[in-house]
Amino acid sequence: MAKAKSGAVWEDREVLFDLPFAYLKLRAGEKIFDRIEPIEDTKGNSGTKGRMVVTNLRIIWHSLSSPRINLSIGLNCILSTSTKVVNSGLRGTTQALYVLAAYKTNRYEFIFTNLSPNCVRHYTSVTGVHKAYAASRMYRDLKLRGAIIHGKQLRMLPQEKICLHEHSIWNLSSDSGNLGTLVVTNVRVVWYAEINDAFNVSMPYITIESVSIRDSKFGEALVFVVRPTSGGYVLGFRADPRERLRPLLTELQALHQAYTEKPIFGLEMTWGNEASKPATDDIEELEEIGEPRGEMGPNLYLASQLSQNKEEAEIQPVYSPYLGLAIEPLKEGFTLKSLFEVQTSS
């Protein structure tokens, strides 16, 4: 399936493998927060040195020797991050970053090992960016009946600026309509009811597929079509007097276009050490990586994950009073005494 660098944002909502270079290039608004090497993808490419690129939308890993071997993990797909003791092909037994992610109906586990001794930067970068992503969802997620209004004023987000403040805007979700106020910022469109401001909607531009004027039973209405990934809603509004509708549409379309060209995703990271900040904000050096040949893929992670989980579930250590330590359970019909007797007789 072809991916576009304009329109719907997919980078933070998909887990993909063996991507062509065009899919690895940063889209408008995507920023590199950290670039770390050498990093081993211990789960799928044990023994291979690679580079990890952490952006405000995803985690990218690619092999240094063969960059067409790569993966992209959207931050919205990550369920959890932790550390795990693993057997690395390049470092032996060591502690690594463990990432559990979900995409569509599948779950994936990724294990990244930093090949630089005593360096945990890959862990701190990924966990820090993931937390910042989760804390900034109001920039990217449509919200119904949220705690976004206080004292008839919009609770502003960092980097947010009010562009339009329109009164006497009717929400057409009921037969009679609800009178309210439309607040348009550089990040989103917010409407709330005059009588009860808890009845509201916050629509970031990233969730809006189109804005237009259509005929309705109330006459001409301003219609927002929300992307399927954000619920696929169709929301209608009417303005009094109706002559305000077309100038309002023009303003909204201009702001929506401006956001599309230069989106604000809401993640900002403070660097304690400026030297740690990536020198460049793109991955142009991968331009000649060639087309993927299927070296990687979901099966590498799904199959090995299932077999490992099965092993862990079946083989749990048990305490042996005979030896005074934990051991692997013995097969049925065997005892420690009989094992030692066999060993002695040999």
Report on the structure:
InterPro entries: BBL5, BBS5/fem-3, BBS5_PH. Belongs to the BBS5 family. There is one protein chain. By secondary structure, this protein is of the alpha+beta class. The chain has two domains: 15-136 and 273-308, Pleckstrin-homology domain (PH domain)/Phosphotyrosine-binding domain (PTB) (PH-domain like); 140-261, PH-domain like. 18% of the residues lie in helices and 37% in strands. It has five helices and 20 strands. It has helices at residues 21-24, 121-135, 245-261, 298-314, 336-345; strands at 15-17, 32-41, 49-55, 58-63, 70-74, 78-88, 92-103, 106-114, 143-144, 149-150, 153-154, 162-171, 178-185, 188-193, 200-204, 208-216, 219-226, 234-239, 318-320, 325-327. It has an eight-stranded antiparallel β-sheet with strand order 1-5-4-3-2-8-7-6, with helices on both faces. It starts with 14 loop residues before the first strand and ends with a helix. Mean pLDDT is 84; it is low at 287-293, 303-313 and 342-346.
The average pLDDT score comes to 84
Compute the number of helices.
5
Number of strands: 20
What is the CATH-assigned architecture of the largest domain? Answer: Roll
Q: How would you sum up the major sheet?
A: 8 strands, antiparallel
Please give the order of strands in the largest beta sheet: 1-5-4-3-2-8-7-6
CATH fold node name of the largest domain: PH-domain like
Structural class by secondary-structure content: alpha+beta
